[in-house]
């Protein structure tokens, strides 16, 4: 075994090098993690938004809106919406509100999933207007809004 | 402790290598940060392709198919009034044909107020709408009707149009323009 000052000198000379290397590696790791987590968040939000859009479209289509047939306010019911939710958004929680917007503002239906009391981490929503026939034979405007989390 | 201390440039070269590595790491971090910033901006633009998330095409479609739901007096038509079950599209076509014939626009004040109510009942607060209608005669179009005003200097506008049939073969072009009003912070909250 050799005893001299070379090892001590070498150790203190390498410390600045080590600091730069550790700082550089840390920067790479932190920025890589940040970008990947950001992408993950955005993709999750995007898929949630897509689920909300599909859910609203399905509710509107199920009510019977097409170029020739107009739904009525009675076309919407809670059981059908729960069934559509099972088919389209699976285990996600939802809240659906259906409101007449013209000629007067009037609640038609509001419903939510059975497990809707959970605190949402991410929320997406979508709404769609459609025409429906009221009891007087007039074509009214209804808005279907779904919030999904 | 009689060891001889060695002096050479090896340590300096190692430090230089580390600084170069650190600089490259910094550059990579900046590139990744700017990439993530652009990604966020593009995602935000994707969410707001239409003004305040409202699609003028969808609004125009349901407005034209909706009934006016009120009895509206128009002194210049034969019956003197329009029934509540008449749709907005039918009202507009009637009004535009009469305007094209040179009838005084003042006769349609009540109808225009109802049409404005129908459009504004669907808008979120902070949005202004303007309904424009053009006669498409021959190879030119003439502005026949304008309901509502858009705020001046607004940079963001979104529009959609539809063709209304008329008794002759020309037809009318109806255009709905949406724009944020003077309080854009209302839209940001939404």
Keywords, separated by commas or semicolons:
heterodimer, A: alpha+beta, 2 helices, 24% strand, B: alpha+beta, four-stranded antiparallel β-sheet, two-stranded antiparallel ribbon, 5 helices, 42% helix, 18% strand, disordered C terminus
Describe the structure.
The complex is a heterodimer of chains A (149) and B (190). Chain A has 149 residues and is of the alpha+beta class. Chain A has one domain. Helix content of chain A is 46%, strand content 24%. Chain A is built from two helices and four strands, in the order ααββββ. Chain A has a four-stranded antiparallel sheet with strand order 2-1-4-3, with helices on one face. In chain A, a hairpin with a 5-residue loop joins β3 and β4. In chain A, α1 runs antiparallel to α2. The mean pLDDT of chain A is 84. Chain B is of the alpha+beta class and 190 residues long. Chain B folds into two domains: 47 residues; 139 residues, no CATH class. Helices cover 42% and strands 18% of the residues of chain B. A four-stranded antiparallel sheet of chain B has the order 4-3-6-5. In chain B, strands 1-2 form a two-stranded antiparallel sheet. In chain B, a hairpin with a 7-residue loop joins β5 and β6. The radius of gyration of chain B is 31 Å and the shape is elongated. The C terminus of chain B is likely disordered. Chains A and B meet through α1, β3 and β4 of A and α1 and α2 of B.
Mean pLDDT of chain A: 84
- Rg of chain B (CA only): 31 Å
Q: Main sheet of chain A, how many strands, which sense, barrel?
A: 4 strands, antiparallel
Largest interface: A-B, 44 and 43 residues
Q: Which parts of chain A are unreliable, with pLDDT below 50 for 5 consecutive residues or more?
A: none
Spatially, the strands of the biggest sheet of chain B line up as 4-3-6-5
> What is the rounded distance between the termini of chain A?
68 Å
